[in-house]
């Protein structure tokens, strides 16, 4: 025999064995007995070849008998050919769509994610499946093409590590790949508040260790509060421009249980056009206040001497108030249900900055960066150092706002207002606003 074993994928016509005789008294004729009908023999030369394909999964060995005769003497020999297994499917390869570019979280279900190719020499029937955390958000068809199977959410999962499995002919092969999700910025109206006191030109982002709460305690770096009782992108549908307040629902309340009153002087502003109102520190006679309107009303006044900057911009789409006021705990009624009254505590930051307007809610505000989370700016800041009310800790940078969101209007020589999506004017401290 050429070899006692052969791969199952050898082609028909492959030489299996050769024959020879000695001391023949005449012309030798060869014949073959093959119960499996896999082989043939050349009657003149005795060469045995494969005539029908082998299949390890069907039978792992075949016997055949070669008979030689010279007309006088006949002799036979039996051979066994062992069939070697070859993977029926192999080299599964996944190719991501669009050269591997991230898939937008707003992509519709059925969006193409990846295709696959597989070596299937026996043309076996192939079954595909996906595994990995979040694999139920995707689907794979009978050709190994992967598509989205749900609405994706960047805030829930920014990437998926998946494994495509192909099964066929008793063989299983896999290929792993990663699907990245790109963010779509999502806006909603909210109040964002934090303390101005620990921000400075030398710091980057919100300080994790700054003292900012009552009696030396530390509050969260910032607090985000919902405007209205349901999420909305239109703050003007819930604010009160006549009385200059923005209502919010905080501390798991069931109604609008808190109001921020902004000290807006419509007659003494620096840029009173198109419904935009701004004033500089100590620039009017109005007070601001924090106000609880459920049950027994609670009012905490922010006197004009405690106000650094405040205003209302863009037709009441943006509100801002920056104070020079000590931190405090304010007890108030947060919910009323029948006879049940819930009392909560409002934690006022030291030198609180209160911003109300449209907020990018991406990734739950885990950070503020140019390409990630940010607040639409609505603040006036001093360009030159300004110490309010005899203190020196109030020169702050609203450094959660990226540089590409700066400036609006003319608010006087020493001040710069940030609003909207232009930064044509307020670039003096541009690098301090850039979080790339």
TrEMBL record:
Any single Pfam family the record assigns to this protein: Cadherin
GO biological process: homophilic cell adhesion via plasma membrane adhesion molecules
InterPro entries per UniProt: Cadherin-domain_protein, Cadherin-like_dom, Cadherin-like_sf
Location(s), subcellular: Membrane
CDD domains: Cadherin_repeat
Molecular function via GO: calcium ion binding
Domain annotation Cadherin: ranges: 8-95, 95-192
Keywords: Calcium, Cell adhesion, Membrane, Repeat, Transmembrane, Transmembrane helix
Record GO cellular component, one term: cell-cell junction
Keyword Repeat among UniProt keywords: yes
Keyword Membrane: yes
Principal subcellular localization: membrane
Name of the featured protein: Cadherin domain-containing protein
């Amino acid at each position: 025999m050429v070899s006692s074993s052969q791969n199952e994928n050898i082609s028909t016509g492959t030489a299996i064995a050769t024959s020879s005789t000695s001391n023949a008294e005449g012309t030798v004729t060869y014949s073959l007995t093959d119960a499996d009908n896999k082989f043939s023999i050349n009657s003149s030369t005795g060469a045995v070849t494969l005539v029908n394909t082998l299949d390890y999964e069907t039978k792992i060995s075949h016997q055949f008998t070669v008979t030689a005769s010279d007309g006088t003497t006949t002799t036979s020999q039996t051979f066994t050919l062992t069939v070697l297994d070859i993977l029926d499917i192999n080299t599964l390869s996944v190719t991501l769509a669009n050269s591997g570019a991230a898939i937008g979280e707003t992509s519709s279900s059925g969006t193409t994610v990846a295709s696959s190719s597989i070596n299937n020499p026996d043309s076996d029937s192939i079954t595909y499946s996906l595994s990995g955390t979040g694999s139920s958000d995707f689907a794979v068809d009978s050709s190994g093409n992967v598509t989205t199977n749900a609405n994706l959410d960047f805030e829930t999962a920014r990437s998926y590590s998946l494994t495509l499995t192909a099964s066929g002919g008793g063989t299983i092969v896999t290929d792993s790949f990663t699907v990245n999700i790109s963010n779509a910025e999502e806006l909603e109206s909210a109040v964002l508040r934090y303390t101005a006191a620990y921000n400075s030109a030398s710091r980057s982002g919100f300080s994790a260790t700054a003292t900012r709460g009552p009696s030396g305690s530390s509050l969260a770096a910032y607090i985000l509060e919902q405007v209205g009782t349901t999420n909305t992108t239109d703050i003007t549908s819930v604010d009160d421009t006549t009385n200059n307040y923005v209502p919010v629902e905080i501390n798991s309340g069931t109604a609008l249980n808190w109001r921020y009153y902004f000290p807006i002087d419509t007659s003494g502003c620096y840029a009173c056009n198109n419904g935009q109102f701004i004033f500089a520190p100590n620039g009017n006679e109005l007070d601001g206040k924090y106000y609880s309107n459920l049950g027994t009303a609670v009012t905490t006044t922010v006197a004009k001497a405690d106000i650094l900057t405040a205003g209302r911009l863009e037709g009441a789409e943006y509100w801002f108030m920056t104070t020079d006021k000590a931190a405090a705990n304010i007890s108030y009624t947060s919910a009323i249900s029948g006879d049940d009254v819930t009392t909560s505590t409002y934690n006022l930051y030291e030198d609180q900055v209160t911003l109300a307007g449209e907020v990018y809610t991406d990734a739950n505000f885990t950070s503020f960066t140019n390409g990630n989370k940010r607040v639409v700016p609505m603040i006036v800041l001093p360009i030159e150092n300004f110490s309010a009310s005899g203190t020196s800790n109030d020169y702050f940078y609203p450094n959660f706002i990226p540089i590409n969101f700066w400036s609006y209007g003319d608010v006087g020589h020493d001040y710069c207002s940030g609003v909207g999506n232009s930064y044509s004017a307020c670039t003096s401290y541009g690098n301090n606003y850039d979080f790339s």
